[in-house]
C-alpha cells in the first residue's frame, strides 16, 4: 500500500475510533519520527499521548463548566500572607485532592474577605482536574434546591442524585439565618454526605455560633458532628482582601 493510501486509511480508522486528535496529528508526528529516528513504540506513544492529553483537557473543561463555579480561582493565585505556615502546608496537601477518595470534608472558617470562597473554588478546580465531578452553590442556593425537591416529593431522589458528585461546595454558611425547614434540609444534606462524599464548606461564623444560623443548638450540634468527623478545618483570619486593597489605593 502506498504512503498516500496508508495516510488515508489511518485517517479513516482514527475517525471511526472517534479519536480526532490522532487524525489531526499522526502525519506531522510521523514526519518528526522519521526525521528523529523514533522507534515504532515511541511514535505510537506520542500519537496516543496527544489524544489522551486532549481528552483529559476536554474532560476537565466539562467538569469545571458543570460545577457552576462563580469564577475561576486557583490555589496558585491565592495570597497566603495572612495564613499560618501549618495551614499553608495543609492547603498544599488538600490541593492534591487525596482527601476526596477518602470522603473527607474541608471547612473554611473566617471573617468576610479572607479568601474562603477563593480557596473553596480553587479546591473545586483541583478536584475537576483530578477527574472528580464537583458542584458549587451558596448555602442559600442549596436550600432553595432542596426545598424545591421537597415540595415536589423528590427530596430523597435529589439527595441520591447529588451523590454522583464526588465533592459539593457549600459557600457562605452563616451569612443568612435559616428557618426551621431550611435548617432541617441543610442537616439532611450534610447527613446524606456523611462518609459517602466530600463537602467543602465556607462560613463566616465559628462553630460556636452555628446555632444562630440554624436556629437550634441541637440541630447545629448534630450537623457539625457529621461535618467535622472526617474533616480538615482551616481557620482564616486577618483583614479582608477588599479592605487591604482599599488601603493600598493612593489617597486623593
Automatic annotation (TrEMBL):
<keyword id="KW-0547">Nucleotide-binding</keyword>
<protein>
    <submittedName>
        <fullName>Uncharacterized protein</fullName>
    </submittedName>
</protein>
<dbReference type="GO" id="GO:0005524">
    <property type="term" value="F:ATP binding"/>
</dbReference>
<dbReference type="Pfam" id="PF01695">
    <property type="entry name" value="IstB_IS21"/>
</dbReference>
<comment type="similarity">
    <text>Belongs to the IS21/IS1162 putative ATP-binding protein family.</text>
</comment>
<dbReference type="InterPro" id="IPR003593">
    <property type="entry name" value="AAA+_ATPase"/>
</dbReference>
<dbReference type="InterPro" id="IPR027417">
    <property type="entry name" value="P-loop_NTPase"/>
</dbReference>
<dbReference type="GO" id="GO:0006260">
    <property type="term" value="P:DNA replication"/>
</dbReference>
<dbReference type="InterPro" id="IPR028350">
    <property type="entry name" value="DNAC/IstB-like"/>
</dbReference>
<dbReference type="InterPro" id="IPR002611">
    <property type="entry name" value="IstB_ATP-bd"/>
</dbReference>
<keyword id="KW-0067">ATP-binding</keyword>
<dbReference type="InterPro" id="IPR047661">
    <property type="entry name" value="IstB"/>
</dbReference>
Amino acid at each position: 500500500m502506498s504512503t498516500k493510501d496508508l495516510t488515508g486509511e489511518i485517517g479513516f480508522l482514527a475517525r471511526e475510533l472517534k479519536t480526532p486528535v490522532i487524525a489531526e496529528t499522526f502525519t506531522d508526528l510521523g514526519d518528526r519520527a522519521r526525521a528523529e529516528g523514533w522507534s515504532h513504540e515511541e511514535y505510537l506513544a506520542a500519537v496516543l499521548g496527544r489524544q489522551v492529553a486532549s481528552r483529559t483537557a476536554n474532560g476537565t473543561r466539562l467538569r469545571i463548566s458543570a460545577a457552576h463555579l462563580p469564577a475561576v480561582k486557583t490555589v496558585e493565585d491565592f495570597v497566603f500572607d495572612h495564613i499560618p505556615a501549618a495551614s499553608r502546608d495543609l492547603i498544599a496537601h488538600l490541593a492534591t485532592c487525596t482527601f476526596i477518595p477518602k470522603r473527607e470534608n474541608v471547612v473554611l472558617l473566617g471573617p468576610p474577605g479572607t479568601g474562603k470562597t477563593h480557596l473553596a473554588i480553587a479546591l473545586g478546580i483541583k478536584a475537576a482536574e483530578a477527574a472528580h465531578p464537583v458542584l458549587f452553590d451558596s448555602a442559600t442556593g442549596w436550600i432553595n434546591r432542596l426545598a424545591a425537591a421537597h415540595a415536589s416529593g423528590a427530596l430523597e431522589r435529589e439527595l441520591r442524585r447529588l451523590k454522583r458528585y464526588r465533592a459539593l461546595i457549600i459557600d457562605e454558611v452563616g451569612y443568612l439565618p435559616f428557618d426551621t425547614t431550611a435548617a432541617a434540609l441543610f442537616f439532611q444534606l450534610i447527613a446524606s454526605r456523611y462518609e459517602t462524599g466530600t463537602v467543602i464548606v465556607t462560613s463566616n461564623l465559628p462553630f460556636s455560633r452555628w446555632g444562630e444560623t440554624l436556629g437550634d443548638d441541637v440541630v447545629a450540634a448534630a450537623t457539625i458532628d457529621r461535618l467535622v468527623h472526617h474533616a480538615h478545618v482551616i481557620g482564616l483570619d486577618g483583614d479582608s482582601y477588599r479592605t487591604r486593597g482599599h488601603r493600598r489605593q493612593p489617597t486623593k
